[in-house]
Amino acid sequence: MTSGRIIFLNGTSSSGKSSIARELLDVLADGVFFHLAVDGFNAMRTKRELGTAELDAALRRTRMGFHRSIAAMAGVGNDIVVDHVLSEPWRLLDCLTVLRPEDVLFVGVHCSPDELARREAARGDRPPGLAAHQYGLVHRHGDYDLECDTSTTSPLECAHRIKEFLPHRPTPTAFTRLRRRLLPDLQEPPTA
């Protein structure tokens, strides 16, 4: 069975990842794509109040489960658009461990700090300053296959750029290069 393709959108909160993902589902005509968003997984969690330690542990397990869900969906041949915030180093390392690097098109979604602050305030569903806090963290690994800036380009234009780039994924992919650099002892590609 052939593994599915993974378009992995990484950027801060309010950077436009979900908007690009929705546009991608409309413009990608060669296959059936699923949008898997980390926010969707977080929304499935119980709503009762959790203490700090319990919440941190639950969030870590949620994100680890999210990564493995991506791998499982792609492993049986589904094409996936991932919407994620790699704001902690372990998140990227976990993804590099469980996802087949040759299947991943890694897309950096950028947005100017001023526009992030404006969007965050307009949304009203995020803690103030969340995007600013994540800004220096999510892209620090410094390696993508493709990058988009939603402060200067619409989500639809970004989606078309990704669609045009998808058949021309580089070899090695950014995930392959990052895996070699960050996890040199991990020899065999993971199986989903």
Walk me through this protein's architecture.
- The protein is an alpha/beta fold and 192 residues long.
- It has one domain: 3-Layer(aba) Sandwich (Rossmann fold).
- Helix content is 46%, strand content 14%.
- It has eight helices and five strands, in the order E-H-E-H-H-E-H-E-H-H-E-H-H.
- It is globular.
- The model has no long low-confidence stretch (mean pLDDT 92).
Overall tally of structural domains: 1
Structural class: alpha/beta
Overall shape? globular
What's the Cα radius of gyration? 16 Å
Low-confidence stretches: none
CATH class: Alpha Beta
What is the end-to-end distance? 11 Å
Most strands sheet: 5 strands, parallel
- Total beta strand runs: 5
Oligomer: single chain
Count up the helices.
8
CATH architecture name:
3-Layer(aba) Sandwich
| N-to-C order of helices and strands | EHEHHEHEHHEHH
Percent of residues in helices: 40-55%
**What share of the residues does DSSP label as strand, in percent?**
5-15%
CATH names the topology as Rossmann fold
Name given to the CATH homologous superfamily? P-loop containing nucleotide triphosphate hydrolases
How are the strands of the largest sheet arranged? 2-3-1-4-5
Name the average pLDDT.
Answer: 92
